[in-house]
Structures are given as structure tokens and as C-alpha cells.
Design goal:
Structural class of chain A: mainly beta
Strand content of chain A: over 45%
Largest sheet of chain A: 6 strands, mixed
Oligomer: heterodimer
Largest interface: A-B, 22 and 23 residues
Helix content of chain A: under 10%
Radius of gyration of chain B: 14 Å
Order of helices and strands of chain B: EEEEEEEEEEE
Number of helices of chain A: 0
Order of helices and strands of chain A: EEEEEEEEEE
Structural class of chain B: mainly beta
Shape of chain B: globular
Distance between the termini of chain A: 34 Å
Shape of chain A: globular
Largest sheet of chain B: 7 strands, mixed
Strand content of chain B: over 45%
């Protein structure tokens, strides 16, 4: 099973960033999102499509329907500049997308 | 709080093996699965395998079958990942990550262990 992400995108500070992840019938699976900054370990920002772990700002939200899952960052801040990976499950294996590099310009 | 602390950086020659440890604290190790994920320089996150909660059952990505072994020592609250027959393409940062319950994702990650494979 494969999930596809746009390799890179940019957003202006204060604007909304929408990062997508596509896969066959992805809406029938749960999706998580991870933020990875240079030199740091990944951080889970969304799980079960749309739930936020404690400590994750409310500006992070998620949705998943059809063949596409979306991570939305509202009011994007400079600190949100990072790589973002979607992740799902296929039978008993974990599948990561290729990652999206988000630039806040 | 829940924390995962990994062993230090390793430098290995091609054909050698590496064994990385991941010591857990703040929760009962056997109650949750533990995953291993790696990231080669400039590359994506790559899931390698996991050891399941409650027993010693493991599941590995097919590309690592025959080269990887994930084990757990509950008395030491530690999970180990051993990768054998190393090649240069195995140069990467290796992470352990705590699994959740009911599709909760990988909620806690270790600090990463850099493995360099070079002759």
C-alpha cells in the first residue's frame, strides 16, 4: 500500500496550510500526521484522522475522506516550518508517506 | 512521564551487525507495542517493524526480513533492534517509537541512534 504526498509547499505566516496525503480508499483507514524538524525526533500532531495529542496547538487539525487525508495548519507560524509525514496502516504494517516540506515564507 | 532513551551512535563496517537498545520509562513496556523507524540522510521516514504488546510476536517490513530482529526484555524495560549484514544504504538515524492502542499512532519517540556503515 502506498500513500502519496506533495514533496514541498510554502505558506505565508498567518495563512492556512493544507497538506494532503492520498491513497486508495484512504478514508477507510486511520491516518496520523507527524512533524519532523531538523535534528529532532518526529512528533505526533494528529492521530485517528483528526484527534490532537495533548500539547499540540489547536491550529493543527485533520480530516480524512475518500482517497485523501488532509492536515490543516491554521494561522501558520514560523515555528511550523518542518517536514510533515502522513502515516497509516496496511494489515499489520505501518506505511509512511514521502513527506511534505513546509516552508513558511 | 513516558520516555524512550536509545543507545549511542554506532559506526560499522559492511557486513557487520548492529544492535540498538531503547529503554522505556514511565509506563509498562509489555502493555504497548514498540516500533522501529529509520531515516536515511535526506530520505523519508521508513518503518522497519514492531514487537507487539502482550507477547513476543513481531512483524517486519518485507525488505528487512531475514536481516532484522526485534526483541524485548521486560525486566530491563528495554527493546532491542538488531540489523545484520549491514550495507552503506543502512546508514541512517534509527528511532524506536511507542505504539498506541486502537490506531493512536506512534506517540512517543526515542532521541534516535545514528548508524554509519562505512568501510
Amino acid at each position: 500500500y502506498e500513500v502519496i504526498q506533495t514533496p514541498s509547499m510554502s505558506v505565508s505566516p498567518g495563512q492556512t496550510a493544507s497538506i494532503t496525503c492520498s491513497g486508495d480508499k484512504l478514508g477507510n483507514k486511520y491516518v496520523c500526521w507527524y512533524q519532523v524538524k531538523p535534528g529532532q525526533s518526529p512528533v505526533l500532531v494528529i492521530y485517528q484522522d483528526s484527534r490532537r495529542p495533548s500539547g499540540i496547538p489547536e491550529r493543527f487539525s485533520g480530516s480524512n475522506s475518500g482517497n485523501t487525508a488532509t492536515l490543516t495548519i491554521s494561522g501558520t507560524q514560523a515555528m511550523d516550518e518542518a517536514d510533515y509525514y502522513c502515516q497509516t496502516w496496511d494489515i499489520s504494517t505501518v506505511v509512511f508517506g514521502g513527506g511534505t516540506k513546509l516552508a513558511v515564507l | 512521564q513516558v520516555q524512550l532513551v536509545q543507545s549511542g551512535a554506532e559506526v560499522k563496517k559492511p557486513g557487520a551487525s548492529v544492535k540498538i537498545s531503547c529503554k522505556a520509562s514511565g509506563y509498562t513496556l509489555i502493555s504497548y507495542g514498540m516500533h522501529w523507524v529509520r531515516q536515511a540522510p535526506g530520505q523519508r521516514l521508513e518503518w522497519m517493524g514492531w514487537i507487539k504488546a502482550g507477547n513476543d510476536n513481531t512483524n517486519y517490513l518485507q525488505k528487512f526480513q531475514g536481516r532484522i530482529s526485534i526483541t524485548r526484555d521486560t525486566s530491563a524495560s528495554t527493546v532491542y533492534m538488531e540489523l545484520s549484514n549491514l550495507r552503506s544504504e543502512d546508514t541512517a538515524i534509527y528511532y524506536c517509537a511507542k505504539g498506541g492502542i486502537s490506531w493512536e499512532g506512534l506517540g512517543v519517540w526515542g532521541q534516535g541512534t545514528t548508524v554509519t556503515v562505512s568501510s
